[in-house]
From TrEMBL:
Name listed for the protein in its UniProt record: Co-chaperone YbbN
GO biological process: cell redox homeostasis; response to stress
Species for this entry: Streptomyces kanamyceticus
Signal peptide start-end: none
Any matching Pfam family: TPR_19
Domain of life: Bacteria
Residues annotated as domain Thioredoxin: 40-157
Length: 326
């Protein structure tokens, strides 16, 4: 059992943990406000740029790299394909309606045979997605709109919950459009629970902090502050009691041992060596396959949550991970 009064001050700066939680929450609020008001938001895109034509030369930049910040839906089509003429306009309309929650990339199969082969497209229209560099099939043929919406909603949920992708900020003023008023979400009574979690962290009660964050997430699974706090508290739990020298020796002696690399990456991050932690796990993903590769990838995504998706080091690492995975 975790000693309630154990000091963690030598392991991590708990003030920085709390500051990171607050910074991420404020960033999410700023993005939402920018989307509501339109214009002037850093990195904002125009509605027209939510639908792009992609060829083989631009695939890495326009799809792989962009998939580190937003799910990219790929529409494989051709001019002679009659069902494509029904599906493509629908996907384009939904891309505008969803307002930056996904990016639509249109690929003409006649001009991009290599991409068609790489994705294993057997017939068109065919719709795939790339999320954080990982390609997955969505559906084939001109599916009903309700089914497409359900698929897109699931894709966006996976992007948010597993990869921390919050989408793009859209500037409607670029084309003189009015931004839709977002639905007001009533604030949940979670302030006391979140404050209790922070107090538990300050006291070194990691088990208490983990439980407090889980209590919030059981009622509000999308609570950004709770997700970040839980990831940080669980990281501290994992490194507690480890012998840093032995962990680093094991990682150096056994470069192919994924568990050794994962433990060393946890220590790297707690010690403030963010790039080292990310680089170690990206290398592990690159060298391995199967369950080992998935374990390294999942831990890397968990560490992304600890640092925060708005951190530029996370963006850089997501791009590197995408290159390794694809």
């Amino acid at each position: 059992m975790q000693p309630r009064n154990m000091s963690m001050s030598g392991v991590v700066d708990l003030a920085a943990v709390k500051a990171a939680q607050e910074a991420k929450a404020k960033a999410e609020q700023a993005r939402a406000e920018a989307a509501r008001q339109g214009g002037g938001a850093p990195g904002a895109v125009s509605p027209a740029s939510l639908v792009i034509d992609v060829d083989e030369a631009g695939f890495e930049h326009e799809v792989l790299q962009r998939s580190a910040e937003v799910p990219v839906v790929i529409d494989f089509w051709a001019e002679w394909c009659e069902p494509c003429k029904q599906l493509s306009p629908l996907l384009e309309r939904l891309a505008q309606e969803y307002g930056g929650r996904f990016l639509l990339a249109k690929i003409d199969v006649d001009a991009n045979q290599m991409l068609m082969q790489q994705f294993g497209v057997q017939g068109i229209p065919a719709v795939f997605a790339v999320v954080a560099g990982q390609a997955l099939p969505l559906f084939q043929g001109a599916a009903p709109e309700a089914q497409i919406r359900q698929t897109l909603d699931q894709l966006i949920q996976v992007g948010e919950e597993r990869f921390g992708l919050t989408g793009l900020v859209v500037d409607p003023e670029a084309e003189g459009q009015q931004a839709p008023e977002p639905a007001e979400v009533p604030a949940g009574p979670y302030d006391a629970l979140l404050e209790a979690a922070v107090r538990a962290l300050d006291a070194g009660d990691l088990a208490g902090a983990v439980q407090a964050y889980k209590n919030v997430l059981s009622d509000d699974p999308g609570n950004t502050e709770a997700k970040l706090g839980l990831a940080q508290a669980e990281l501290l739990q994992r490194v507690q009691g480890l012998d840093p020298q032995q962990v680093r020796k094991d990682a150096a002696d056994r470069p192919a041992d994924v568990e050794a690399q994962i433990a060393a990456a946890d220590l790297d991050l707690v010690g403030g060596h963010v790039e080292d932690a990310f680089g170690r796990l990206i290398d592990a993903v690159k060298r391995t396959a199967g369950d080992d590769r998935d374990a390294a990838r999942v831990r890397l995504l968990e560490l992304f949550e600890v640092v925060g998706s708005d951190d530029p080091r996370v963006t850089t690492a997501r791009t590197a991970l995408a290159r390794v995975l694809f």
